[in-house]
Write the structure tokens for this entry.
Amino acid sequence: MKNLIEKYFEGETTLQEEAELRSYFSSDDIDPALLPYQPLFRHLQHEREQTVSPQFDQKLNARLTASPKIVRIQNQRRNLLRIAAVGAVLLGAFFFLQRPIEPASPQAINWEKYEITDERAAYEETVKALKLLSSKLNKGTNKTVQEVEKIEKVGKYFN
């Protein structure tokens, strides 16, 4: 019976084997190891016995031929957008009116403390800046090479 159940769940049983399974699980003499499957087969048997009422077709046709009801659905998105707009205006007005507008007073920057007067220090700073620039450019170049390789791999399918 276990082999038959396995075949059933794999979809390989015949109609006769399925009928045999239904009759086995309908009886009260079931192997305790197979008891977990009993509710499934009893449910399937119960559903098979269900029928529709004789007036089902008439009721269905009456509903299909009846004039449809017109239902107005309020667009709640529009209402939510209105509320959000009012909130944004109020929030903006609150922050705008809280701070008095003061023109920023520009302060002069003393560039003399950043100047390098020693030639060796200037050379070292220049080398550092060029190394940084080179590493950033190489990083971009490597990324570009990787992307071109990807495009070439895909491109061979289109040629």
Remarks:
- The chain has a mean pLDDT of 83.
